[in-house]
């Protein structure tokens, strides 16, 4: 009877868990954007709820989420992306219970017709560099110089191969005084909500702060051949400083530096086929730069009507290392990406406002050796120690003298019995070994005493041991090429590579919006997810976290 009750209770618990998971799914419509021709995901596409001034950006895997309430309202979503036909879809046409695939059609024919029309109107062809120069000179004309705010979805996470780890999410509002003001000094951030998403894997190695002074015991987290300022651990501040358009008067990231004064110097620019978005014709400008062992690729999409910058992509590669996939990426490079920044703007009320910014960098975790030599002892029989103290000259007494090495784990005898793997020096003079004995975590090394010089050396070591003067400064011991029973090599550091992402996707822009007085804003000199003040507005439910799918291949 008891067994039957247990089975029934287990079934009810499973039913409750399943119902809860289904209820969670029903809170959102989940979709994914695909290229209709290639079936590849369309990342960073704009997905707007028509006539509500609300929207999101598709994730790297093309996925997106929309609250179910907008289906009940009977709303329409408008989907647009560079080089694709804009689509309008009734939310009622989406399924609640499964992933909705939306295929975007490339707008090739329309683009060709637009290019022909544009060529008829154009009298002289601008060079790529002239177009870029005009776009920088027109920043204050095209971007807001009056206070405004933008509400959006922020997240930071790492990728361990294709798996998301350490996903942190937030809804926040940024109050900006305009492009004449210094963003980092004057902008304020209001946190509506933030959370560590526990549905995704946690990885303590990847979560630790950057530490370029590697600790022998705990290792460290570094970016190879680069340096990233920690900005007191506030990841949103790190992201914001990498917006080269907003910070056009300040240093942002390597090789771009100040967009206004440095960008044109040393970069090569070339024109590609024009493109467009929402009937806005755009120049497509390719960017290239090589500096010693680094190579930079990028792209600018610039309006043909007023030279406003719609999109800026910039990636820096390490020429000395290949990427982990073994394939060439969109820039035609198979080298390792050090960092990559994608910034997109869109037009509202004749001004350009941020659409999204994504900052990606590669980093390496250095893991200390797990198999190490912990200490070295010199062993003598107690009676022989007394003989030594009494200066008794008995050569045979040194035959049982030996070094005892203790390691962190049991030793694999296959590698440990080779005497060439051990080296000792007494004040610079080599100590030679005659035989070896391996037991568990310990190795006993018996020195040679046939030669007079070796015999005297061992006697000297015994005397130093008795006097308590045998230390690392006097006796230097090194071990190589041995392993523990788990296959770990002595003193071998391990490395693990990750990709780090910080992203902000704007859901609503509020022109002419000033920061309220007497509210508690985010503390910039403090991690965004550590005891920051939370202020939820009355319309908080208008915004949502566009949490990605668990695996980017799904």
Task: Please give a structural write-up.
It is a single chain. The protein is built from eleven helices and 25 strands. The chain has helices spanning 2-26, 69-72, 108-121, 128-137, 139-142, 183-186, 204-207, 235-241, 382-389, 413-416, 452-467; strands at 28-35, 46-49, 54-57, 63-67, 76-80, 87-90, 100-104, 148-160, 163-176, 188-196, 220-222, 268-277, 280-291, 294-303, 309-322, 335-348, 351-367, 373-379, 402-407, 422-426, 429-431, 433-439, 442-447, 475-479, 494-511. The strands form five sheets. Strands 8, 9, 10, 11, 12, 13, 14, 15, 16, 17 and 25 form an eleven-stranded antiparallel sheet that branches. A hairpin with a 2-residue loop joins β20 and β21 (429-431). The chain is elongated, with a radius of gyration of 32 Å. The two termini are 44 Å apart.
Q: Total number of β-strand segments? A: 25
Unreliably modeled segments:
1-24, 109-116, 382-386, 388-398
β-strand amount: 35-45%
Rg (C-alpha, Å): 32 Å
Helical content stands at 10-25%
């Amino acid at each position: 009877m008891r067994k039957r009750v247990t089975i029934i209770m287990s079934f009810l618990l499973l039913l409750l868990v399943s119902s809860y998971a289904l209820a969670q799914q029903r809170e959102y419509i989940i979709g994914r954007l695909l290229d209709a021709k290639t079936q590849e995901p369309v990342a960073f596409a704009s997905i707007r709820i028509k006539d509500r001034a609300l929207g999101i950006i598709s994730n790297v895997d093309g996925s997106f989420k929309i609250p179910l309430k907008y289906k009940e309202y009977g709303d329409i979503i408008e989907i647009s992306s560079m080089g694709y036909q804009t689509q309008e879809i009734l939310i009622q046409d989406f399924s609640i219970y499964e992933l909705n695939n939306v295929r975007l059609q490339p707008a090739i024919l329309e683009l060709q017709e637009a290019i022909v029309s544009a060529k008829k109107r154009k009298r002289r062809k601008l060079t790529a560099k002239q177009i870029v120069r005009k776009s920088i000179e027109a920043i204050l004309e095209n971007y807001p110089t009056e206070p405004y705010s933008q509400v959006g979805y922020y997240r930071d996470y790492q990728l361990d191969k294709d798996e998301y780890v350490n996903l942190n999410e937030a809804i926040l509002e940024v109050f900006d005084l305009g492009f004449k003001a210094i963003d980092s000094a004057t902008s304020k951030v209001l946190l509506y909500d933030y959370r560590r998403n526990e549905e995704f894997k946690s990885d303590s190695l990847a979560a630790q702060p950057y530490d370029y002074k590697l600790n022998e015991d705990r290792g460290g987290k570094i970016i190879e051949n680069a340096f990233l300022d920690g900005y007191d651990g506030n990841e949103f501040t790190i992201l914001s400083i990498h917006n080269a358009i907003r910070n056009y008067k300040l240093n942002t990231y390597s090789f771009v530096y100040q967009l206004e004064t440095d960008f044109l110097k040393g970069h090569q620019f070339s024109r590609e086929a024009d493109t467009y978005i929402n009937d806005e014709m755009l120049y497509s400008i390719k960017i290239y730069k090589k500096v010693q062992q680094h190579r930079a690729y990028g792209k600018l999409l610039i309006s043909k009507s007023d030279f406003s910058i719609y999109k800026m992509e910039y990636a820096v590669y390490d020429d000395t290392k290949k990427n982990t996939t073994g394939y060439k990426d969109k820039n035609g490079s198979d080298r390792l990406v050090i960092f990559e920044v994608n910034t997109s703007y869109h037009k509202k009320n004749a001004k350009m406002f941020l659409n999204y910014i994504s900052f990606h960098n590669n980093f390496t975790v250095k893991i200390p050796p797990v198999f190490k030599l912990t200490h070295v002892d010199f062993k003598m029989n107690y009676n022989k120690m007394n003989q030594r103290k009494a200066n008794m000259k008995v050569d045979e007494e040194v035959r049982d003298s030996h070094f005892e090495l203790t390691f962190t784990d049991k030793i694999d005898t296959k590698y440990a019995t080779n005497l060439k793997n051990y080296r000792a020096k007494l004040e610079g003079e080599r100590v030679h070994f005659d035989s070896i004995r391996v037991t568990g975590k310990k190795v006993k090394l018996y020195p040679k005493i046939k030669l007079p010089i070796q015999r005297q050396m061992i006697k000297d070591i015994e005397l130093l041991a008795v006097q308590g003067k045998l230390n690392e400064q006097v006796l230097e011991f090194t071990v190589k090429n041995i392993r523990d029973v788990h296959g770990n090599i002595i003193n071998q550091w391990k490395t693990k590579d990750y990709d780090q992402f910080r992203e902000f996707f704007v859901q609503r822009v509020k022109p002419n919006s000033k920061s309220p007085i007497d509210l508690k804003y985010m503390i910039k000199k403090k991690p965004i997810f550590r005891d920051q003040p939370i202020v939820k507005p009355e319309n908080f439910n208008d915004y949502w976290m566009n949490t990605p799918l668990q695996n980017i291949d799904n």
